[in-house]
Amino acid sequence: MPDPDKPMSDREMRSQKDLLLWMNALEAYALDWDKTFEHKASYFTQEFWYLLVRCMINAWNGTPLTVSGACQQMKSGSNRTREGRIKRAVDDGFLVKRQRQSDRREAIVVPSEKLEKMMIGHFSRTLNVVSDCLSELNRE
Question: Which of 91, 43, 92, 48 is CA-nearest to residue 70?
Fold first, then answer.
């Protein structure tokens, strides 16, 4: 990943037209996320994005996150605040909290079927938008 603190060369800079295409794709992503979560403002934050996306990735990779691991995915807030976000996602039916099969003393959080369905739809729709954007950028 390029260092945002390092100045870009003129060669690396993109045209205004390219950037407008990209900004529209990113805006479509954000609007789709908001619509996916039925415009619930509290889920329109990067903290829930990191939490929910990382829970899906880890579950799909066969390495579900512990509660502690899920808390570490969020970038701000005390442990109590982070655990409160997890509790809210569980209460709202997006995450499932359960004991790990191999060690019943350890709790894990995994995406619910409801969340998986929502996220598959969101990422499929937005992947199509970004693919179209990249196709357009590559035509030039």
Answer: 48
Enumerate the H helices of the chain as residue ranges: 16-36, 46-60, 67-73, 79-91, 113-139
**Which CATH number covers residue 38?**
1.10.10.10
Q: Tell me, what's the pLDDT at 133?
A: 92
CA atoms within 13 A on the CB side of 124: 6
Q: Report pLDDT digits (tens) over 5-19.
A: 888 787 778 888 999
What is the number of domains present in the chain?
A: 1
C-alpha Rg value of the chain to the nearest Å: 18
Q: Residue 140 — very low, low, confident or very high, per pLDDT cuts 50/70/90?
A: low
Q: What is the pTM of this model?
A: 0.84
